[in-house]
């Protein structure tokens, strides 16, 4: 059989394997499910964001902003929605949501395997060896234990292709063309919506490139350095141009976000990778399995299971170790991969590494991310490819022994078919049972159909937001009760009555919360700060295990946030909260929906102005008992020149049109005043009053307001971030130039050469 | 340049190495603080060996006559072991930081053992290939590890509880703001309880910039680039190491282990990490002194003396070197003028800016220093055993006598200059006041004496001499 036919069959096999794994979900109307420390980053982060992006794209809008999350949420700039990631664009926009989810997984697993296979082949590993690498990579714990992080998987699968292209670069004479392809792959990876794995990949690829060049050409330091600089400047420029449409909005959003551009060393290393975690390579569940709630809850001590565990099969691990020990001295790629794999632990161990702090301080970009163990992606790729080398080594030894000893000389069937099949079967079985022990399956219709709470809320015609009290605590208790997501998903499904943030988007209900904001998140700093204060005031305020007392002033601020309903398993205590609905479910306490008497509309007029000397002063002003957001607005000192309100001041405000990036309002003011929009104050929002440009000023710390004179006016708020506009043009221009270059390189130039000959 | 190898018995190298080791044993325990009289005796022995090396008569005959390579191996072995066991920063951010530093110190100790052991491996598997690689590239890894260790000290100890760090840091901030560091007040690290215990008053102020102005400029430069004044010392230590390496590499091109081992003596000088953490400026002075010698060896005319002027403008006790400058035969009025001019160029602006503050910070405050019981000196011993200070007159007479003796006894030349200055400084520290950084400085000078001895040997490239 020819090599290309073997490769074709191997790729088919990998596709078949991915189908075999995900087809049961597709056929039975389910999706894979994995919980998190609280909730699930799949059903409450990745899928809602994709759902939002796809909905807006289907409506012909670019998903720049959504008003369904966190008082307004920069959907594109936040990045995790992966708005421009090609597979997201195709699958989620054009296919039913359920099919898109499962196909996204299937494609990822297939591509991860295929890319690894090609990388193995270009390193001259046999077809079988490459297949071992491919299976070990794509069905490793890195992907299986991370199914909840679709955006991470989307990004991580491209690393083997990047390494493949680097190998190609050193083999090819058309180096610039390869560099452009490499940049394109990086660009796609960036759009996947996982900056940490994009960063890991670019650092890993750079390291691989540098190792390659210095191992290949050992005695030409200057030329090597020049080549490195030249290549990576080209790559950097193309990536920058290509990704500008996502990069610019994300960067400018990060600057004003609560999380900021850098994290503290303590934050970055707060979830450790222990020496103990190395045992995961052999026993994936030796510390327990979070899917059945047996993994230690103290993640600050033991680390996060799915961040630390990349189990890729016992046999491939042994093969990789074998390759490292016996081929290190003889085989250059093995040497490079071994060095990369082992040195990656200097980062992965985080604070336990003697030199991580130096990387963290001096290595550009590392300060932006948590979880240094995400470099396990590099370790994994190196180890699985080493496993391929190990397989070939073992195979060669076996054949050699066979020839030397004359034993089993006639057993062609055994060596050509049975043994390879047995080895593959062992690896697939090993990885398969590991996956089955971990991945849950969630009935799509059951989970995504509106729960009773959502149906109740949908029946209210007002524009409002909801707030789920102590949802992480509720989720953890349900998870405890269920004994993990593998045991009793029924309770998890019942628990969604709470409408976990951000699952609210599936039922078109706006929430004042955002799932990611608890972990830093990318909300505007003030919006997040306000959210944190409200958590303190409402989750843990005056009460006991079963009830929470919320102060009047806190309710008013919730009202300012346009929060009309609170959802809680606990009893909420305040005279201005009215129990509107009680939903019972077997085995769970009844979910209570409370109506907030201090609820304020999305947009309202105010005539009293309270001035504040700073943004911080605005914040403390909000929680002053005398402050009533319905009557007064807190503005910065230099904005507060409006006359004091008179007794008969009236503002009638009507929302005429509301889209994600646009709010059209009719405002009728008896006296000059401020039209407050209960939406996060963010750069990029513009306002017009009767067609004339108007300034949006920061109001009540986290919101925006426009000054309106007496009379009837039409006020339009629209989101037009400059970063997106600039990025759009730069991406378009870069993409055009790349197309021209590819057209010239692949079609014109070969044609000219042919003509010359 | 003179050759100072003794004709009979042991070479001077043995004396210098012995003095170096005795000094190390004397001061490296307990971070250079007085804990036991034996420390004083060891330091006295080190000083005595150095003094005895000046005499033609062999007062000491060592029963061993090892080759320079073996001597350096032995000196390094002691140095590495002391570095591993005794050297550590003390104001680290976490226990893990301490562990990480210790791991790297251990790694460096293991790497050093590759100088002592030869491996007969084929290199056909990972482990043997790794060992062969490490054995081949041990020096590179040791240099990298030395750098990493120093970076770790800076990153893991970002705010050491010592006034020197804060005055240097604040001094840079002052000069950047256009204010006079000698008039500034710096971050006070002491709590009222600390102040009461240390100074018998409830409030302390850190308002004396006790170093001379060259330090301000050097630290400002490195803080501006890297964000921490202590990067100055990282640069200084590696600059010193480079000087040693390149000086000896020229002479011992065929026996690179010799320059490597000499370089490791300074890179792994015990208490190097502690001195760095505490921000004492001695590594900078050492570097400038090494540079001065290096430039003289490279036959520059005036540049060495400009560097010497800068050296004088770093720390008050560097002025001790000034009279011994006349031991250098090529010295001329112009050269002295170059040194003095450079010194004044640094000093005068600060003195003119606010004379009173400057004089108070750099002279008066230093003279008012009250001797404690923690200094590693004869003075402490006197206070511990006789409950009184050594008489000033005695110190003065001894110092003056020693100065005259050294000035007359040492031969003209660079080595003479260095030996005289080294012995004199050592004696003064030993008599009056010595801390970890003082003896660290002495050890560094001793190392350079060893380097110069190796450099000056005429038999330098022969296998017989080296091995």
Task: Describe this structure as you would to a colleague.
The complex is a heterodimer of chains A (757) and B (467). With 757 residues, chain A is an alpha+beta fold. Chain A is built from 28 helices and 20 strands. In chain A, a hairpin with a 2-residue loop joins strand 13 and strand 14. The mean pLDDT of chain A is 92. With 467 residues, chain B is mainly alpha-helical. At the A-B interface, helix 16 and helix 18 of A face helix 4, helix 5 and helix 6 of B.
Helix-and-strand structural type of chain A:
alpha+beta
Low-pLDDT ranges of chain A: none
Largest chain interface and its two residue counts? A-B, 16 and 21 residues
Assign a percent range to the helix content of chain A. Answer: 40-55%
H-E string of chain B: HHHHHHHHHHHHHHHHHHHHHH
Share of residues in strands of chain B = under 5%
Main sheet overview of chain B: none
Tell me, what's the shape of chain B? globular
The stretches of 5 or more residues of chain B where confidence is low (pLDDT under 50) are 1-9
Number of strands of chain B: 0
Measure the end-to-end span of chain B: 24 Å
Structural class of chain B: mainly alpha
Helix content of chain B: 55-70%
Shape of chain A: globular
How does the major sheet of chain A shape up?
5 strands, mixed
> Can you count the beta strands of chain A?
20
- If helices are DSSP runs of H or I spanning 4 or more residues, what is the number of helices of chain A? 28
Order of neighbouring strands in the sheet with most strands of chain A: 4-3-6-9-8
Oligomer: heterodimer
Radius of gyration of chain B: 22 Å
User: What separation lies between the terminal Cα atoms of chain A?
Assistant: 35 Å
Give the key terms.
heterodimer; A: 757 residues; alpha+beta; 5-stranded mixed β-sheet; 5-stranded antiparallel β-sheet; globular; B: 467 residues; mainly alpha; 22 helices; disordered N terminus
